Every structure is written in structure tokens, then in C-alpha cells.
């Protein structure tokens, strides 16, 4: 099958709008992220030339969008052990290990949490997020450990998604960060969005950034070099804790993306654990809260750092 092609010419009223925003407004089925990927891959041109995602269109510009045929992706259930903290007919609460990707994406179509829950739940997963993310309402980074909820049906998914939207879900993380703090508690309220240069990173105070709020408190300090903190999320942006803590000069230990390049303790990614998850059960309305201690590597690291004092 041939690629689908969309063509149109910019009029005076549309002039000055960013090309990714304009195309998103014109085509409900295309997200800004997907459009930006298409631009980067050369599938969207202006006057038969490639442009950057921040290009502002001019009157008379000829836009050409080549939509490649979607890949026929089939995600297979896989018999991967799961640390299930709680399960009922509507949902599961899972303690995710370090190194496991939550849902399939380019380069990770197997070995993910979704492959594992598809095997465990058979056909009983919500369908709202499509074939790549069945049952997934929220996610944590590959190298972050800890709790997340997976929905078995659309009723549960809609309820949990709404609770996320109104910030009523309790999500507390433990993190080890560089440096010590003058105050024992604090709040970071800085919008987060895609980094303007490095598309794999997030950044604060960028154009089109979305509100992001992180509350933190110091649990323990290790000499004058590191601190163990608890972070409570009010919002849930990509890399939120990592970006926010780096923005106040307290990047996470092991995070070579937002912190120092040197990995002093040879960690596999950031020292971050989603230790507490609480929500109202979608069927009963009862508030439920789950807690899981950090994994062994995290505890071992704390013991090493205590020797710095």
C-alpha cells in the first residue's frame, strides 16, 4: 500500500503558527509528538524542503504530509515473573523491577511489563490505551523501581485516569540526590516540557511546558555530599522528579542524563523508587494505599553512603 499524502496551502490567518501546532490543529488524529517525529524523519515538508519542528509557517507555504503505513505490530504475552502486591477483578498493583520498560515502544517490543501482564491477565486488560499500552494508566521510567497500577477493564481505567487528572492519587518516591538542603522541606512548581534541543530530554520553563509540582522532604543526609529524600508528586510529567531536582542543583545519584556524567557508584540509572501508591478503588470508592520498601541495591547504597558521615 502507498503512503497517504495530505497537501494544503497556508493562508494569511494561519501565518506565524508553529508547523507542528498548525498540523495538530488541522488533523485530530495526529498528536504533536507524532507530528514532530514525522518532521524529523522528513515526512513533512514545506515547499518541498525539510524544516524544523519550530518552523513558523508563512502565507503561501505549501505543506506536504506523507503518512507512512502504520507498522503491523503484534505484542505477544510473555511468561515473565511479576511482583504483584495486590490484585482483584479490576486491577493489579505491581512492584516493577529496575531495568524493565513499562510498555512496548520502538526497540522494546518484548520483555516489558505489558508483555508480562498480558500473559498474567490473558484477555482481561483495559483497551483504552490501545495495543501498545493495554491496562497502563501511568508509568515509571525503565530504571525507576516501585509501584504502579494496571487496570483490567475500562471502568477501572477511566476511574484511575480521572483521579490522576485531578491529582488525587498519592504517589511518593524515595530518591538519593547530590548535596544537602538548607530547609528540610520544599516545593518545586515549574512547568516541564520537551527539551528544545535534545528531544530525548525534558526541561523546565520551556515553551508549551505543562504545570508540574513536586513536594519534597529530607529523610537523611550523608555527610555533606548526598541526601535521601521523599518526593510526593502532585502532577505526573515525564521525568518530573529527575528534572525538578536537577533544576535546584540536586540531581539524582546515578542519573547521567540530568546529572553529572560520571557514575560514581556504578548504578544502573537513577536511584529512584516509587514506594507509596494510594487511590480510591474504582468500584468500591474505598481508599487503598500500598507501600513497598526500596530494592536491595538501594538499601546497599544507603549503607555505603552512611559511612561518609
Explain what you see.
The model has no long low-confidence stretch (mean pLDDT 90). A hairpin with a 6-residue loop joins strand 14 and strand 15. This protein is of the alpha+beta class and 309 residues long. It has three domains: 4-67, RNA-binding S4 domain (Structural Genomics Hypothetical 15.5 Kd Protein In mrcA-pckA Intergenic Region, Chain A), CATH 3.10.290; 71-165, Pseudouridine synthase (2-Layer Sandwich), CATH 3.30.2350; 167-309, 2-Layer Sandwich (Pseudouridine synthase). Helix 1 (19-26) crosses helix 2 (32-40). The strands form three sheets. Strands 5, 6, 7, 8, 9, 12, 13, 14 and 15 form a nine-stranded mixed beta sheet that branches. A four-stranded antiparallel beta sheet has the order 1-4-2-3. The protein is built from six helices and 15 strands.
Search tags:
309 residues, alpha+beta, Structural Genomics Hypothetical 15.5 Kd Protein In mrcA-pckA Intergenic Region, Chain A, Pseudouridine synthase, 3 domains, 28% strand
Amino acid at each position: 500500500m502507498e503512503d497517504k499524502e495530505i497537501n494544503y496551502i497556508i493562508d494569511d490567518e494561519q501565518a506565524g503558527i508553529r508547523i507542528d501546532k498548525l498540523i495538530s490543529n488541522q488533523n485530530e488524529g495526529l498528536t504533536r509528538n507524532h507530528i514532530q517525529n514525522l518532521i524529523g524523519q522528513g515526512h513533512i515538508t514545506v515547499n518541498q524542503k525539510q524544516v524544523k519542528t519550530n518552523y513558523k509557517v508563512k502565507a503561501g507555504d505549501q505543506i506536504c504530509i506523507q503518512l507512512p503505513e502504520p507498522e503491523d505490530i503484534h505484542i505477544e504475552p510473555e511468561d515473565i515473573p511479576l511482583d504483584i502486591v495486590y490484585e482483584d477483578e479490576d486491577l493489579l498493583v505491581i512492584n516493577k523491577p529496575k531495568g524493565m520498560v513499562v510498555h512496548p515502544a520502538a526497540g522494546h517490543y518484548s520483555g516489558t511489563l505489558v508483555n508480562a501482564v498480558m500473559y498474567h491477565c490473558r484477555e482481561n486488560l483495559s483497551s483504552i490505551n490501545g495495543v501498545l499500552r493495554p491496562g497502563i494508566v501511568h508509568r515509571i521510567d525503565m530504571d525507576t523501581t516501585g509501584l504502579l497500577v494496571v487496570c483490567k477493564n475500562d471502568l477501572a481505567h477511566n476511574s484511575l485516569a480521572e483521579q490522576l487528572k485531578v491529582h488525587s492519587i498519592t504517589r511518593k518516591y524515595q530518591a538519593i540526590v547530590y548535596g544537602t538542603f538548607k530547609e528540610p522541606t520544599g516545593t518545586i512548581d515549574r512547568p516541564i516540557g520537551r527539551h528544545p534541543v535534545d528531544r530525548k530530554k525534558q526541561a523546565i520553563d520551556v515553551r508549551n511546558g505543562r504545570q508540574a509540582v513536586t513536594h519534597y522532604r529530607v529523610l537523611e543526609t550523608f555527610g555533606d555530599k548526598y541526601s535521601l529524600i521523599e518526593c510526593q508528586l502532585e502532577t505526573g510529567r515525564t521525568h518530573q522528579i529527575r528534572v525538578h531536582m536537577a533544576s535546584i542543583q540536586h540531581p539524582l545519584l546515578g542519573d547521567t542524563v540530568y546529572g553529572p556524567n560520571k557514575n560514581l557508584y556504578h548504578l544502573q540509572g537513577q536511584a529512584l523508587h516509587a514506594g507509596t501508591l494510594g487511590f480510591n478503588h474504582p468500584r468500591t470508592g474505598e481508599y487503598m494505599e500500598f507501600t513497598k520498601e526500596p530494592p536491595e541495591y538501594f538499601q546497599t547504597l544507603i549503607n555505603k553512603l552512611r559511612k561518609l558521615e
